[in-house]
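Folded chain entry —
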Amino acid sequence: MIVYDLVCTAAHRFEAWFGSSGDYDDQQQRGLLECPICGSAQVAKAVMAPAVPAKSNRKGDTQSLANDDPMARLLMLQRAFEASSDYVGDRFAAEARAIHDAGETRSIHGEATAAEVKALREDGISLLPLPFRPRARSDA
């Protein structure tokens, strides 16, 4: 099972459970998703922060720091995202297209031009801009 936060065009945010990310994609393409608040069929995934438990061997209370400081929360989100996805640099558009065409489910991050982003979206390939600049693994 996978849970997504979804949002409609009226900015109603709600949670939905799916058997897999493919189930979400299938239901979205078939127009089966709708907002439980207003009934809008224009529903998309909302930006979500992954639930990453703090390691017990770290000094200090990183959880309380993240709750108090928005920048610390963003840094924790960035680190968790980068740890769970592959950095592909300026090959982002080609890699995203290859993953989509192969029917794979894999998280990647990198850079793309505005034209590449537009072409990917026109071809039905889901992508989101990051709220931070991605770092290559060697920059970490």
About this structure: Confidence is low (pLDDT under 50) at residues 61-66. The first strand starts at residue 2 and ends at 8. Helices lie at 21-29, 62-68, 70-83, 92-102, 114-122. The two ends are 31 Å apart (CA to CA).
